[in-house]
């Protein structure tokens, strides 16, 4: 009885001190924050040491965080591998995730969560129609659910929406969704979980996409950027793989950067890249990465083979475990760049980068109410989808439309807590070129009219 009372007292005092993290347990992991171009766990630099985790893939869709028996089975493997993070591509927002999220927290493992599902996502071929209120309701419902867990490291607003030059036309919609999620977290006074995009492994517009997601007004810039990179194929090296050149190209980029998928499997995988990824030749610019992928899904990327309840370790499992074991993160802060800050918007250069207008679409009108009322219950995996539903955006957003008046960027309780949007290091909102704004509004009035007629 006494212990019950004591823990109740602790719970009450924690709740009082940390009003926005009611769900945080007193012994839970410290939420990850952003400072300059790096992640931090309290005062310690944090590097993502993780795997991508979606047994069944997108064809046999299963929510891996809704099945306590299987997630607990796999968490033992994550711990054995020496991981601190897993990425999950899709969750069912009608399911209960407490048990798996708490079991992960007990193992000090964070989750990077994609907020999309196959049926509720942007359609790169038709972004203006798929960016609608039905879609955003599903996204916000997932965000609301997972922002309460202290070990939700980050949200991916999109995954590989742009997969070549021409599809870069969809970039304003990806950026609008990122803006909307960030605004939703602040409007709903949820923890300001970092939000960013996971880009496909495309050399021809990787840098442009990174700059684009970090340009413009504070409200529309991401908190971090991630990309998939399969260019290091063992046996290789920092220079042979070209990773040295990528470090150079991203030097001075103002946001945390990490690999959302890596692990080329052209030859036998030895995960030689691990020793470079966590070395000071990369850590000034990179914050680790996620190996693709935990389970074998038929493309020979799996670390384990799952059949029924049995999990069998493949040779890659041992290679990764050994590579991580012999590679400690650098001591100190890994020479991160504490300045951070905005990029310039990349110039249009079709076909590789086909975005000529820096302004974003305004949030679809019926979705605005979610900012004040909350998202409510999501449709989950069994919902009927969103790509051709609801009401789309009909206007171009004005500068700063995604900011939340009266709410500070650093609304979370930790003193080192600030997002990539740290107010002090960001360009002021009005740095947005006003002329651009009025041209955009005029254009969007035309565009809006034509969309209404269609
Ligand atoms: C680095 O940037 C240069 C100049 O934009 C580009 O030509 C090159 O392909 C980039 N290298 C990598 C590895 O992305
Ligand atoms: C640190 O970041 C700032 C802002 O992005 C940039 O101007 C500066 O060059 C960076 N410094 C280094 C050493 O990369």
From TrEMBL:
Any Pfam family hit: Glyco_hydro_72
GO cellular component: plasma membrane; side of membrane
Transmembrane feature ranges: 432-453
Gene3D superfamilies xref list: Glycosidases
Keywords: Glycoprotein, GPI-anchor, Lipoprotein, Membrane, Signal, Transferase, Transmembrane, Transmembrane helix
Membrane topology type: Lipid-anchor; GPI-anchor
Signal peptide: 1-17
Low complexity bias (residue ranges): 390-422
Positions of region (Disordered): 322-422
EC number from the UniProt entry: 2.4.1.-
Biological role stated in the UniProt entry: Splits internally a 1,3-beta-glucan molecule and transfers the newly generated reducing end (the donor) to the non-reducing end of another 1,3-beta-glucan molecule (the acceptor) forming a 1,3-beta linkage, resulting in the elongation of 1,3-beta-glucan chains in the cell wall. Involved in cell wall morphogenesis.
Family: Belongs to the glycosyl hydrolase 72 family.
Protein name: 1,3-beta-glucanosyltransferase
UniProt organism field: Talaromyces rugulosus
